[in-house]
UniProtKB/TrEMBL annotation:
Entries under Gene3D superfamilies matching the protein: P-loop containing nucleotide triphosphate hydrolases (3.40.50.300)
GO molecular function: ATP binding; ATP hydrolysis activity
Domain of life: Bacteria
Every ATPase dynein-related AAA domain range: 103-241
One Pfam family per UniProt: AAA_5
InterPro entries reported in the protein's UniProt record: ATPase_dyneun-rel_AAA, CbbQ/NirQ/NorQ/GpvN, P-loop_NTPase
The protein's name in its UniProt record: AAA family ATPase
Region (Disordered), start-end ranges: 1-31
SUPFAM superfamilies the UniProt entry points to: P-loop containing nucleoside triphosphate hydrolases (SSF52540)
Source organism: Actinospica acidiphila
């Protein structure tokens, strides 16, 4: 079996458990959903998984955790790790979804909250697309239901005129719903989740009806640590959730590993050169980001000022991907300091005044003095000129 993140041309309807409107996946889809990108792995897990599965789950909790963390199956099939982090975090997240409480993934930006949520939904329900994107403008209809006004005017209120939200569909079909950036949603709109999560029902007063959730329904929300205070979750709503905090990568090696893996996957889908030759550069980008984020050099000797933006793993991934594209199209195909310097600068200097001072100080006191970093120092100076 081939293990890859390449787009696949698997027909998701083949076993009838993915809704028909997901359609067939074109092989040139820019970013296939997790359930399509990893269809082979999910199928291998399902066929060899003999542990009990909660109602409507396509895998047992154990197999879902294996899908996320990676492993080797009895027949030798290799499951690639999607999430690199503490096993316990994943185990708690998965088991929460088998209970009557919903799951809240909390963490600073770029800690893979969205990524984990997508993969959990894909592994559990075979469908990660029942998604509500939370913003300050998210209306109640996005969580409950809306109306098709043409039908409403022509025939009056009826089930035909009703446009279900992704949450309503997940309730009716016993699947996993996802709400992204929950705390950005205005508090009164958030509260429409309370009845859904506590009573497991969604009343439709206009029709004198309700949609009752069937077994298998649950909800994964993500929220940003930094947004705290924007629209704090009401305590009534918070009680419906089990909160799991996704930590920043604990060691530089773990972070380099995450960046390398993801860049390889993204690079393959963009036909970029292979990463191995660029690992040194990845290590440098990760070192710079970690040091500035932590406010101290890796050896613990020099205190540093931190810039205003979050220098997350996700940001490191995009800096390196951008660098690989430069190397491929305008260099010799090998990732070098000159290919990542501009990206690093762009990620660090968000506020042109304050962050530039922070960066200059770091560049002159740390980067300049570091053994083997003179090419990086030069490239950064050129990029900043
Ligand atoms: N611990 C990790 N394991 C695997 N991938 C990670 C990890 N941390 C970050 N990433 C990668 O970072 C990228 C952005 O993560 P994302 O889910 O958008 O972050 P968040 O929603 O927390 O802001 C994803 O492509 C993901 O693969
Ligand atoms: Mg996110």
């Amino acid at each position: 079996m081939s293990v890859s993140a390449e787009p696949t041309s698997v027909d998701p309807r083949r076993n009838g458990s993915v809704p028909a409107d997901t359609g067939t996946v074109r092989p040139d889809t820019l970013r296939p959903h997790a359930e399509h990108a990893f269809a082979d792995e999910l199928a291998a897990l399902a066929s060899q998984d003999d542990r009990p599965r909660p109602a409507r789950w396509r895998l047992s909790p154990w197999a879902v955790a294996t899908y996320l963390l990676g492993g080797t199956l009895p027949d030798g099939t290799v499951i690639t790790p999607k999430y690199v982090g503490p096993r316990r975090v994943v185990e708690v997240a998965v088991t929460t979804l088998a209970t009557d409480r919903a799951l809240l993934l909390l963490g600073v930006p770029g800690t893979a909250k969205t990524w984990v949520s997508e993969h959990l939904a894909a592994a559990l329900s075979g469908d990660s697309t029942l998604l509500v994107q939370g913003t300050a403008g998210t209306p109640e209809e996005a969580i409950r239901y809306g109306w098709n006004y043409a039908r409403l005017l022509a025939h009056g209120p009826s089930r035909d005129a009703l446009v279900p939200s992704p949450v309503m569909r997940a309730m009716a079909e016993g699947r996993t719903a996802r709400v992204e950036e929950l705390t950005r949603i205005p508090a009164d709109v958030q509260d429409s989740l309370i009845t859904i999560l506590s009573e497991k029902t969604l009343p439709i007063p206009e029709l004198g009806q309700e949609v009752q959730a069937v077994r298998g329904f649950n909800l994964i929300a993500t929220a940003n640590d930094r947004d705290r205070g924007v629209n704090e979750l009401s305590s009534a709503l918070r009680r419906r959730f089990n909160t799991v905090v996704l930590p920043l990568p604990e060691s530089p090696e773990a972070e380099v590993d995450i960046v390398t893996r993801r860049v390889e996957q993204i690079g393959r889908s963009l036909d970029l050169p292979a990463v191995p030759d660029g690992v040194d550069e990845i290590r440098r980008v990760v070192t710079v980001f970690r040091e500035l984020r932590d406010g101290v050099t890796a050896d613990g000797r020099t205190k540093l000022k931190s810039p205003s933006g979050t220098l997350s793993t996700a940001e490191a991934i995009s800096v390196v991907t951008g660098g690989l594209a430069l190397a491929a199209h305008f260099g010799d195909g090998v990732l070098r300091a000159g290919d990542v310097a501009a990206g690093v600068l762009g990620a660090v200097v968000r506020d042109p005044a304050a962050d530039r001072v922070v960066w200059q100080e770091y560049l002159e006191t740390v980067v300049r003095e570091r053994d083997g970093w003179s090419d990086f120092y030069r490239a950064c100076r050129e990029a900043g000129a």
